[in-house]
Amino acid sequence: MKVVTEILHMFYEVFWFIGLSAIQWIVGRKEKSVTRNICLITGSAGGTGRYFALEFAKKGAILVLWDTNEKGNESTAKKARDLGAKVYTYTCDVSHKETVYETAERVKQEVGDVTILINNAAIRTQTSFLQCEDELLERILQTNSHAHFWTVKAFLPRMMEMNHGHIITVTSNLGLVATAYMEGYCTSQFAAVGFHESLSHELKARRITDVKTTLICFCLVTGFPLRKEYFVRQAMKGILTDQHVIYTPRLLYITAFLKHVLPWDAQIHCSKRLDIKV
Fold this sequence. Notes:
Layout: H1 2-27, E1 38-42, H2 47-58, E2 62-67, H3 70-82, E3 87-91, H4 97-110, E4 116-119, H5 134-162, E5 165-172, H6 183-205, E6 211-218, H7 228-240, E7 245-248, H8 251-259, H9 264-273
Parallel strand pairs: 1-2, 1-4, 2-3, 4-5, 5-6, 6-7
């Protein structure tokens, strides 16, 4: 009888949270302020990292930009400063643990406590692992997934002490649904998604209520009509309302669902029809 009671109670709570989410979706959530928050972005020299930097600059955040491309990073910094932001740049290879920890200590001393961490740095390649050099495979995993361990370990403890912060993991649809000839990249993306989800569960288990987590999955289908700027703007809305998961475009929600209900051969057919590249 106790088991039945527990199951019924669980279903009651599940439907309660579903209803609450539906109300919040209809009514909308108020965006939080990130003014004067220190926002660290990895892979900020170009692409989505640069667009995130510019969006957070518009919101009044203090930017800390990490990248191995010093010239590109300074270009991003200039654009952000033109928007009125205070910006600090660091040349940092996030695939090296010691470099991450050393640079993190510099940031703490020179800038302050990071309260928004965007793990965005990634190596993207479309090469079968059979043709891919071992060193490149290792670097893909180190940059795209292992680096999340080191950056989060560097900044999460202080966020937990303050009970204030936000960890954002930027991945692609290939962390949800794999494709051919990209084993290394897909593996790294699935690993990043798994780490993010496990970390989110741990924060809940520790009752850390105000260190938020957001998983962002962008679409990497060639020829998709929307640009990265649009994806980042959509993601920003979710970040500022503490949304847990953001798939953009929204079609990815359907893709993730169909993966668990379609027969394997149907999944293969869909993968062939979609020309997925990076």
